[in-house]
Amino acid sequence: MVLLGQVRTPGCYPCSNSSPHENHWICVDGGSSAVLNEDGQSSTLPKTAELGSLWHRLIRPLCRCLYALLIFHIDITLAVRTKKYGSSIQDSSAALSASMFRKSLASNITAKAPAFVSPKRIVAPCKVENEAAHRWLEAMKNLSPPRMRRLQSDLIDDKSDIEAADINYRAWMVDHPSALDKFDKITEAAVGKRIAVFLDYDGTLSPIVEDPECAFMSDEMRNAVKEVAHLFPTAIITGRSREKVYEFVQLSELYYAGSHGMDIMGPVEGCNGFKAQGTKAWDEKGNEMVLFQPASEFMHVMNEVFKLLEKKASKIPGAKVEHNKFCISVHFRCVKEESWLALAEQVQHVLNAYPNLRLTQGRKILEIRPSIAWNKGKALDYLLRALGLISRNDVFPIYIGDDRTDEDAFKVLTRRKTGLGIIVSNNVKETNAVCSLREPDEVLEFLRHLVKWRRRRTSRLV
């Protein structure tokens, strides 16, 4: 029996874990194949195999074509309504209903086909002894951009998956419109208010790169950030160490918060009676600042864990451990995927001895931090308070970031019902941000627009 038109080298191949063939094997001899159970008895493939093949070859592409036509119709309708009635940063009822319709439609279109066994998708069952490490990997993979996972996967049958991703992204942008397209609306909301700008670094001011030591920002971006800092209070809040991000940015006009906000170099004199917490320090240019480190008692532990992880990771090709002071990052980006589990297990072996530390996942990265109630949202609150902007009604904070950890800052702005959160992403992701930008190049364009807008308003007042 020919198995779904696939030609395989004679031999036995393990079935996937999907029912009803757990612990079964497919044996191929020339052009025929059969399913063997654990006792070596032969059985035939289920009828659903033929149905699954029909679904993937004929029905699914047809459904996607219909889906694309319907989405195009929705876009035209929405554009007409927007032109007729105007638009705002807040979601309109038309946009919301369109978004709900798309989500409902997408869930129906992407419903699973009948279960079937395809040789192209067969993988040997993996016995996972370390449940925690396995969960970490699953969470980390889910945070990887879907389009990139598809392009790197050998499971792509055609371009339909990529086209579907583009359609989904356009639907997502109904709820998270481009900050460039909505720039006039954003500045209208900011008129008469004190703007403060907060920026992530990796993936926001610089592109994501294979080697974290080479995440350099462009000279154009540096000049734009410098101009922004001359016009508005500006800070960088990053998972990197404060010293490392300063080496990349090289601007003394900013405030810096490293280690996901656990290492803040802020203003000395608080406004409105606020007394800055921390100790006096001096930045790289000799300016007096206040150094605030809410996890300072963990410094010795973090140094110890870094040395252990560095030793463990040295056994796995491509693995890199980065010491970000109060955050240790284990990078998987240059590690072959078949070695990911081994690296995650090494991380857990070390972490088991330190119950006061916690682990979080990012894009091809695991991060170890102190278990304290502190994050980028808390750092944003601290800086707003230190700048005398926390209790004012005329404040408009703008926070731009691309990472899961930036969501804590977006939540702060949502809770305060002020300012604007902007997510940097070229793929669909769940976020508390209001607007979006695709990539660092668009961040650069947005910052330049902000500078030009403020200078125009200043010249008019003069």
From TrEMBL:
Q: What are the entry keywords?
A: Hydrolase
Whose protein is this, by species? Adiantum capillus-veneris (Maidenhair fern)
Q: What class of enzyme is it?
A: hydrolase
Tell me its cofactors.
Answer: a divalent metal cation
InterPro entries according to UniProt: HAD-like_sf, HAD-SF_hydro_IIB, HAD_sf, OTSB-like, Trehalose_PPase
Pfam families attached to this UniProt entry: Trehalose_PPase
Q: Membrane-crossing residues?
A: none
The similarity comment for this entry is: Belongs to the trehalose phosphatase family.
UniProt keyword Ribosomal protein present: no
Describe the function of this protein.
Removes the phosphate from trehalose 6-phosphate to produce free trehalose.
What this protein is called in its record is: Trehalose 6-phosphate phosphatase
Q: Does the UniProt entry include the keyword Hydrolase?
A: yes
As recorded in UniProt, coiled-coil segments are: none
Q: Which CDD domains match?
A: HAD_TPP
Q: Which reaction does it catalyse?
A: alpha,alpha-trehalose 6-phosphate + H2O = alpha,alpha-trehalose + phosphate
The pathway is: Glycan biosynthesis; trehalose biosynthesis
EC number assigned by the record: 3.1.3.12
Signal sequence segment: none
